[in-house]
């Protein structure tokens, strides 16, 4: 009883940690010469020197750009609580200029306790923003603009970016623009006039190396003393965990994870799953949970779908494959049926079905997205006559036929025979 | 026992009401699925309030067992769901698998059994929502507190994603103040891809976790498309996956056997009928629909459906069902017409021996009735679609047949190759279009020929017959519109030069042959 509640408590603590980006990246605070420290230095210096600045944080998804920006903001808010105000925009939501100016005006009003009118036009909002920038500049308050999905702001005419950067240059304003993007060439997307007003500072976030990941895993899973859990449990748990970490199998697990995707978010997903698979009776993490989590994360969806097919659907796939091998550039359901009937006549199997039944199996394959139509739905054609193509490779089909225990031998023979023709 | 008593697979309605004794829904097959979900979701929240005082410990084990009992063959997935969904905070979750694999059902049942109970579950049935705006409205209305429902209905539903995210954040913030979890479920996520601006909306939905940054909100997505359908060019944070494979033969048998009043009889039936049907399709709903009429046929020789079969009875029933099984394998669904039902009641065994069910080449008659003029019109449409217009003169000349006195040239290899390619082209292109005038010309030609032949056959000049034949020409356009409405002929784009309507015949050769047997 007590063990169960301790285990569930521990699991809750670990899960909360893994879902909190602040905690995940908090180890960065202590290490020197990271992007975190560089960004913090940049923003802090521009606050203290009362100048404008702009910087881009670039890196693939899940590498911690937004987390680092949040951490920097948190620290700065603690140090200079009234000297900064933060405006957050997201390219997915606010790429439209009117929308963006409205959002900026709304957030400015929120920060400075002014009332915001939804009826204000876009020109009014722009004027208001410029006035606020000037006022804050005179009052020595820095406004920090965080633009997430920066590359989406760079679509279209880039009016927002231009007006923002232009205002920063021409007025007595103090503003820092921090752009986050997963496209490494985000600055190349900017127009000439925008780019000239942009300081070419870029901070590159790269996926971590194995050592960093190892340290991150330890930081996340090792429990510190002094939390609400009993001390004996914590020492047991930590000692087991360090045993696991030093095991070669664990390094192998981490390596295979990193081969696919070495970003922090992938590791977090893996750890979350492993923590959820924690053995609730003992309350300890074991190698089992890590191995299970890894195997679940490395599924191949198309191979799984192929295992789920009925025999008739496999026949249709093999017929399509034979047609492709015969170098027919395009084929449709009627040609597939012709091939199917010729096979049935030649081999006299027990699997000869009517055309309607085969068409239903064909539609099932379309639903599973193992095959698809080759043309865009322009012409008003019946489904039987539209060209189709296979979306799986012949290697996947061969492997699935081998793995399928109920597959009739003739199907395997039909598939193999075309190799030798 | 709260098991359903009707001999069908546990549909979502019957299973839901089986495990929820508080509901008093009748066991009717016509109950639509949406009402079941609406009943499950507030039940999930209501159950939270009721069972909060119960202690943990033994209850965990029993709830897991109840859940596993309700979800046959889904042990691993159910355990995964229970472990990954609760407690909040949790990373988002994606359930994927083929159709009719029990994803939504497993999720909704699991949401009722997780511990701690969710404070609110908001369910977006994306398949029944027509547009993004409807999705926003549905979610916001489910999340707003019920007391202010009248006020919120007067609020404007957000159009743009930014307004929606802001409104969603406000609604969720007010709900999450107590610290309980709120679950947002997006069902049938794959249909959003075909919406207008669907890719952006999918990207938004999948990133809601990052946009909202509320730790008490858990997002769950259910999709029948595999996760690689949602990868975009700029990458995305992936949710945790749970895969629902299709059921195996044994699992399907277990599902179908549940709650059947005569398990021994049904299991002997399934041992005969299930494996052949399983080779055609593995979906439980289609199998259930096909097995039901077969089971009725299976029990026909038995007077009493409660009897427990022994070996001799089983052999007799097997021989009886064999022929019907062969027919059922070649049908997708059968609508029992009145004629066939009457036949079953009257003749019983005699009709089955007369008709050769095993012989698939025999042409059965047309299952529905068509007037003679409609049949002629349909056939002329078929001929017009399948033959190019240039052959019309040869086929339909005044002698009423092909010209016999032209000697047939010996076909050379090249012409045979050309014929093959033409046949292939016909296969690929499908039926062609024809204008209305051509259709009427062929129709007149055929009916005039038939009138002549009929007059020859009929020795007695039956005036009724004669007038009946000339009546074929009337109301042709009316017949044409009827055939168009029943999708035997479809109207295609009108020719840009002439501006007249063009039609295309949709029937295949089998149906044309059936129609032609007058």
TrEMBL record, chain A:
The keyword Glycosyltransferase does not apply. InterPro entries: ATPase_AAA_core, ORC4, ORC4_C, P-loop_NTPase. Belongs to the ORC4 family. This is Origin of replication complex subunit 4. Residues 216-400 form the Origin recognition complex subunit 4 C-terminal domain. It comes from the Eukaryota. Residues 55-201 form the ATPase AAA-type core domain. GO terms for molecular function: ATP binding; ATP hydrolysis activity; DNA replication origin binding. It comes from Digitaria exilis. GO terms for biological process: DNA replication initiation. Keywords: ATP-binding, DNA replication, DNA-binding, Nucleotide-binding, Nucleus. It is found in: Nucleus. One of its GO terms (cellular component) is nuclear origin of replication recognition complex. Its main location: nucleus. Component of the origin recognition complex (ORC) that binds origins of replication. DNA-binding is ATP-dependent. The specific DNA sequences that define origins of replication have not been identified yet. ORC is required to assemble the pre-replication complex necessary to initiate DNA replication. Coiled coil: none annotated. The keyword DNA-binding applies.
From TrEMBL, chain B:
This is Origin recognition complex subunit 5. The keyword Glycosyltransferase does not apply. Residues 370-516 form the Origin recognition complex subunit 5 C-terminal domain. The keyword Ribonucleoprotein does not apply. One of its GO terms (molecular function) is DNA replication origin binding. It holds the Pfam family ORC5_C. Keywords: ATP-binding, DNA replication, Nucleotide-binding, Nucleus. Belongs to the ORC5 family. One of its GO terms (biological process) is DNA replication initiation. It is found in: Nucleus. Residues 12-24 have a biased composition (Low complexity). Residues 50-59 have a biased composition (Acidic residues). Its main location: nucleus. Residues 266-315 form the ORC5 lid domain. GO terms for cellular component: nuclear origin of replication recognition complex.
């Amino acid at each position: 009883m007590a063990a169960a509640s301790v285990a569930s408590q521990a699991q809750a603590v670990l899960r909360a940690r893994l879902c909190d980006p602040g905690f995940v990246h908090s180890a960065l605070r202590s290490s020197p010469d990271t992007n975190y420290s560089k960004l913090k230095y940049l923003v802090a210096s521009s606050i203290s020197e009362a100048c404008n600045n702009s910087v881009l944080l670039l890196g693939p998804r899940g590498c911690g750009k937004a987390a680092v920006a949040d951490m920097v903001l948190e620290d700065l808010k603690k140090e200079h609580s009234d000297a900064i105000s933060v405006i957050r925009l997201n390219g997915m939501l606010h790429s439209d200029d009117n929308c963006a100016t409205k959002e900026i005006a709304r957030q400015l009003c929120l920060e400075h306790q002014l009332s915001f009118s939804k009826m204000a036009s876009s020109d009014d909002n722009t004027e208001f923003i410029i006035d606020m920038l000037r006022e804050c500049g005179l009052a020595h308050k820095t406004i920090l603009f965080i633009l997430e999905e920066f590359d989406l702001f760079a679509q279209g005419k880039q009016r927002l970016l231009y007006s923002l950067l232009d205002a920063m240059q021409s007025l007595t304003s103090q503003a820092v623009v921090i752009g986050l993007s997963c496209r490494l060439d985000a600055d190349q997307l900017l127009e000439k006039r925008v780019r000239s007003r942009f300081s070419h500072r870029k901070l590159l976030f790269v996926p971590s190396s194995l050592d960093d990941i190892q340290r991150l895993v330890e930081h996340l899973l090792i429990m510190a003393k002094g939390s609400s859990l009993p001390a004996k449990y914590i020492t047991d748990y930590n000692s087991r965990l360090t045993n696991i970490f030093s095991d070669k199998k664990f390094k192998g697990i981490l390596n295979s994870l990193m081969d696919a995707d070495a970003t922090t978010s992938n590791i977090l997903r893996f750890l979350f799953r492993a923590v959820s698979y924690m053995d609730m009776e003992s309350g300890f993490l074991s190698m089992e949970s890590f191995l299970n989590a890894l195997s679940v994360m490395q599924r191949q969806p198309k191979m799984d779908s192929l295992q789920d097919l009925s025999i008739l659907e496999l026949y249709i796939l093999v017929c399509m494959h034979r047609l492709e091998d015969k170098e027919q550039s395009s084929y449709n359901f009627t040609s597939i049926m012709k091939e199917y009937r010729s096979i049935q006549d030649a081999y006299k199997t027990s699997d000869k079905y009517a055309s309607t039944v085969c068409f239903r199996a064909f539609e099932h394959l379309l639903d599973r997205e193992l095959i698809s139509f080759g043309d865009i739905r322009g012409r008003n054609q019946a489904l039987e006559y539209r060209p189709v193509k296979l979306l799986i490779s012949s290697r996947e089909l061969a492997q699935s036929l081998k793995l399928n225990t109920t597959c009739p031998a003739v199907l395997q023979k039909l598939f193999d025979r075309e190799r030798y023709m | 026992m709260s098991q359903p008593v009707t001999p069908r697979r546990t549909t979502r309605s019957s299973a839901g009401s089986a495990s929820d004794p508080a509901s008093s829904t009748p066991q009717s097959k016509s109950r639509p699925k949406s009402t079941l979900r609406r009943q499950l979701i507030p039940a999930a929240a209501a159950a939270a309030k009721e069972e909060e005082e119960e202690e943990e410990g033994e209850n965990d084990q029993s709830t897991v067992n109840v859940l596993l009992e309700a979800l046959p063959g889904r042990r691993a997935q159910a355990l995964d769901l229970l472990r990954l969904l609760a407690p909040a905070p949790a990373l988002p979750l994606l359930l994927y698998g083929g159709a009719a694999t029990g994803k939504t059902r497993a999720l909704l049942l699991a949401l009722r059994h997780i511990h701690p109970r969710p404070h609110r579950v908001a369910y977006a049935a994306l398949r029944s929502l027509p547009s993004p705006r409807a999705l926003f409205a549905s979610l916001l209305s489910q999340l707003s507190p019920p007391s202010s429902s009248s006020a919120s209905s007067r609020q404007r539903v957000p159009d743009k994603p930014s307004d929606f995210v802001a409104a969603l954040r406000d609604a969720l913030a007010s709900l999450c103040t107590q610290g309980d979890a709120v679950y947002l479920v997006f069902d049938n996520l794959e249909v959003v891809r075909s919406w207008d601006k669907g890719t952006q909306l999918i990207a938004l939905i999948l990133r809601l976790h990052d946009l909202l940054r509320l730790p008490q909100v858990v997002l769950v997505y259910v999709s029948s498309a595999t996760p690689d359908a949602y990868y975009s060019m700029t990458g995305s944070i992936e949710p945790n996956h749970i895969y629902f494979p299709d059921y195996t033969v044994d699992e399907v048998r277990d599902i179908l056997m549940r709650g059947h009043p005569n398990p021994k009889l049904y299991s002997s039936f399934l041992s005969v009928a299930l494996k052949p049907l399983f080779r055609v399709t593995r979906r439980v709903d289609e199998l259930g629909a096909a097995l039901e009429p077969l089971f009725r046929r299976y029990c026909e020789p038995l007077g009493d459906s409660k009897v427990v079969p022994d070996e001799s009875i089983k052999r007799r029933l097997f021989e009886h069902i064999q022929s019907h099984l062969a027919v059922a394998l070649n049908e997708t669904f059968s609508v029992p017409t009145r004629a066939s039902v009457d036949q079953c009641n009257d003749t019983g065994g005699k009709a089955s021996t007369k008709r050769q069910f095993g012989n698939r080449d025999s042409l059965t008659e047309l299952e529905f009735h068509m007037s003679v003029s409609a049949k002629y019109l349909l056939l002329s449409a078929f001929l017009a679609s399948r033959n190019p217009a240039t052959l019309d003169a040869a086929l339909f000349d005044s002698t009423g047949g092909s010209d016999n006195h032209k000697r047939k040239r010996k076909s050379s290899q090249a012409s045979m190759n050309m014929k093959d390619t033409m046949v292939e082209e016909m296969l690929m292109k499908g039926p062609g279009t024809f204008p209305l005038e051509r259709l009427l010309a062929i129709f007149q030609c055929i009916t005039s020929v038939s009138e002549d032949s009929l007059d020859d056959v009929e020795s007695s000049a039956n005036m009724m017959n004669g007038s009946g034949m000339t009546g074929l020409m009337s109301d042709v356009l009316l017949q044409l519109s009827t055939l168009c409405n029943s999708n035997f002929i479809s109207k295609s784009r009108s020719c840009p030069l002439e501006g007249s309507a063009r039609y295309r015949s949709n029937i295949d050769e089998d149906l044309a042959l059936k129609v032609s047997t007058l």
